[in-house]
Design a protein that fits this description.
The structure is a homodimer. In chain A, the strands form two sheets. In chain A, strands 7, 8, 9, 10, 11, 12, 13, 14, 15, 16 and 17 form an eleven-stranded mixed beta sheet that branches. Chain A folds into three domains: 153 residues, 3-Layer(aba) Sandwich (Rossmann fold), CATH 3.40.50; 157 residues, Dihydrodipicolinate Reductase, domain 2 (2-Layer Sandwich), CATH 3.30.360; 85 residues, Alpha-Beta Plaits (2-Layer Sandwich), CATH 3.30.70. By secondary structure, chain A is α/β, with parallel strands linked by helices. Chain A has 14 helices and 17 strands. Chain A starts with 10 loop residues before the first strand and ends in a 10-residue tail after the last strand. The C terminus of chain A is likely disordered. Helices cover 35% and strands 24% of the residues of chain A. Strand 11 of chain A pairs antiparallel with strand 11 of chain B.
Chain lengths: 449, 449
């Protein structure tokens, strides 16, 4: 196969896809050639590139012995290429080309979270079956080394819980809404103009991209296959500045979180906006930055923070993986660490806890009829379902009209809350559907304890 | 040699030193036996222990086939032990036993920062010469996976700058002094009673422990040997609550930092208390927690936060290294990644920039004669040396006595400042030696940009 032990033979990398990340990786590969060779002990060279669309290589020129392939099949089949870097994104042809490359014994590095979240089992299975390495650090958190941390550094501990701000676009929008009191639509439009949001921002703002990433993180942390369709997902489209304002009064900051916890017999994985205490570390992560915090049984808390997107940061993650795969090829020592950190077969699928069964604290904003007895009614319905109130803010008076009444609760199940709101929202005491935002119990502050 | 390919043969680990970290590691090894075997694909077993002092194993019992060695020589020479975990600490016999183990072809894992900072060149050289692996993740930042991040995840990028809160005891003391306005001595005494500080706290509070760690971090980040003696070190013994108070008025928090920057031709490595903007991420790291931030040329900023000490967190780092070394032994694929991330020989020693040549902003507290013209004198001397003032706070009046005059400056070299203070402190305008604290230019906030 492609193992090589000739001390002068370089490992030749083929890049498919020369978009932002592809060009970032190309830049690292060409610019840091000497340092890469020094660190690896053998040359890592650019064997070829393949890009369907016309692109301009900004400030880069391909070396003379780099092959330009017209289609990916050609590159994948070329025996001179020993390592394939897939940076085209999307489901197809990415899926096919990765599977084909593995079939001919080539290790693969990819940044494709959507593909891995959707077809991960097939792809991880293929890597295991063909004894090749699959690197995908760049698929979560850009340049933040969270996957290697889970797979290697913390492999001897049990991860109990993970929570992350893993979509920079959503975080940018929430940060600006909160700072400037602007409406969602206003900030989104501006973010699109400035290039912080895509022209079709659905994946980012509806939580789908975060779901892809939390699915990958959970699979690595807990050693269980995770099915994307099972994950409850809620985005930030419906968030109003008034709720960010009230949140501040309670000392909270709103973030779109991916959450994953291992309860032993079941997993709790979800994506939704969450209020966090303003002095927690995740609450301090603003703008386009990403951060992932986790808790290990022996380790305790750990937080990683950095740029979650962008060509250059993401390219460093691709390069870390490429170097590891290249070592495996050069030293004929591939596939010693399973791609997910757990052996592919033998994993046991744990059930996902339904959203109705999760426990949380809640922020509830009622638009209440401004009449005597309304608060007593609301408190009564909540109390009857076992939901106890932690605090209440009731502001302004509009006798005969409606006013916001904001309640934060102690821990209750989602089904208790939904049941109570079913009754309240159907009553004459409120004029609009009640706004519900979960409050995340963050125990990971850099506190004295 | 000790390579083994028998699919049933376990890799047998010997632990020397059963203190807090040793017992934490033992607990992980015994409690997570099944998960370790599953993840590795082969059994990792406890071959033996060696501990000179009488210890009580809390809630742990050694398996029947675990050998109890009377001295380390016996364990190191025993061919049944293929991997030595050194957790005795201190310089000797740690140094000798590590060198002896390597000499007979055994990989070594250690948490011994003092030893590596002092005798690193000898030990890394020996690992390279004997083709064994040396794991030392646990030597910096407890369970925070900063070394693997530098060695593998970011190996394709160039690290420009590192700064860290890498001593939990010092951070605990500064946090409490700042929150409660207490004197250094008061907090230290209480921290000693509560077990947050050692009975001899010198290494922690005088910055020596931080210097050990920043020496290791810098060597890995920049690929240059670093000599401990060259690093300027200043501890926190002299810090007064009044300076923490004035700092707050300027929006600063005081932290003991290890700092390392690569200026191309020279390195800037130092340990000293630094004022940080209160909303920077490092400023939010309180109590016994550690955090390391770094900046990569392509990566941009990255921050890792977690427990920097404690038996269990540190043991997870030891375990991550042990698993990696065990794979190398089992698959006969040792020493594929050099211990420092760079090949041992061929590194070029970069000179350290002397403290006098560094640039910084400064906080200066003068105890000034409360007389007209004093501020004009101070500003004049500073201005004559090219130091421009950013802001001034002058509080209280004590006509004829002395009052604090606090000045923050724009960027200047340390030698400019020392020269100016030499003149001012010798003058009749001040009654005490001026307090100087560097203000760290932190560009790594989770900002919108």
């Amino acid at each position: 196969m492609l193992n090589q032990n000739d001390k002068n033979a370089p490992v030749r990398v083929g890049i498919i896809g020369l978009g932002t990340v592809g060009q970032g990786f190309l830049r690292l590969l060409l610019k840091n050639r000497e340092i890469l060779r020094e660190r690896l002990g053998f040359p890592l060279t650019l064997g070829g590139v393949c890009e369907k669309n016309p692109v301009t290589l900004k400030g880069l020129s391909l070396p003379p012995d780099c092959v330009t392939y017209r289609d990916w099949e050609e590159m994948v089949r070329d025996p001179r290429i020993s390592l394939v870097v897939e940076l085209v994104g999307g489901l197809d042809p990415a899926r096919t080309l990765i599977l084909e490359a593995m079939k001919v014994g080539k290790s693969v590095v990819t940044a494709n979270k959507a593909l891995l979240a959707k077809h991960g089992e097939e792809i991880f299975g293929s890597a295991a079956a063909h004894g090749v390495d699959l690197g995908f650090e760049a698929s979560v958190g850009g340049g933040i080394p969270i996957l290697r941390t889970l797979r290697e550094s913390l492999a001897g501990d049990r991860i109990v819980r993970l929570a992350g701000i893993i979509n920079g676009t959503a975080n940018y929008i929430l940060t600006r809404m909160s700072r400037e009191g602007l409406e969602f639509e206003t900030v989104l439009a501006e973010a699109q103009r400035q290039g912080y949001a895509e022209s079709d921002p659905t994946f980012d703002i509806d939580g789908i991209d975060s779901a892809h990433k939390i699915a990958i993180l959970a699979a690595m942390a807990f050693g269980s296959p995770v099915t994307l369709e099972e994950i409850p997902v809620e985005g930030i489209r419906h968030i109003k500045p008034i709720d960010l304002e009230f949140g501040k009064e309670f000392g909270y900051v709103l973030k779109l979180l991916g959450i994953a916890a291992d309860h032993g017999d079941s997993l709790d994985i979800r994506v939704h906006p969450s209020f966090l205490p303003e002095h927690s570390l995740l609450a301090e992560v603003d703008g386009v930055f990403n951060a992932i915090e986790l808790s290990g049984q022996a380790l305790g808390p750990l937080l990683l923070f950095g740029r979650g997107a962008g060509g250059d940061p993401t390219a460093t993650a691709v390069m870390g993986d490429v170097m590891e795969c290249a070592r495996g090829i050069y030293h004929a020592s591939r596939a010693q660490v399973p791609a997910l950190g757990f052996p592919f077969s033998g994993r046991i699928k744990k059930a996902l806890r339904p959203l109705s069964a999760i426990y949380s604290e809640y922020y509830l904003r009622f638009m209440a009829q401004d009449q005597p007895g309304t608060l007593s009614y609301l408190a009564g319905v909540l109390g009857d379902r076992g939901i106890s109130i932690e605090s209440v803010i009731q502001k302004g008076r509009d006798r005969g009209g409606s006013v916001p009444v904001v309640v934060t609760t102690h821990r209750a199940t989602e089904s208790q809350v939904r049941e109570a709101l079913g009754i309240i929202d159907a009553s004459v005491h409120v004029t609009e559907k009640t706004v519900v935002i979960r409050i995340e119990d963050v125990s990971m502050e850099g506190s004295l304890s």
